[in-house]
Amino acid sequence: MSATASPVANSSGSVTNQAIQVLQGPYITNTYGGGIQCQGPTRNFTPYVTGSASASKPFEGYYDDPVYDISDLNEDGMIDNPGDILFHKRTRTGQKDNYSLGMGFSMTWSTPTDKKLQDLCKKAATTQIQLTEQLTANKRLDFEIARLKNCGELMKAGIMFAPGTKYASICADVLVVGKNVITPHIHSIPSVSVPTSIPVLPLSSRAEDLGAPLETK
Question: What is the pTM of this model?
Answer without folding.
Answer: 0.43
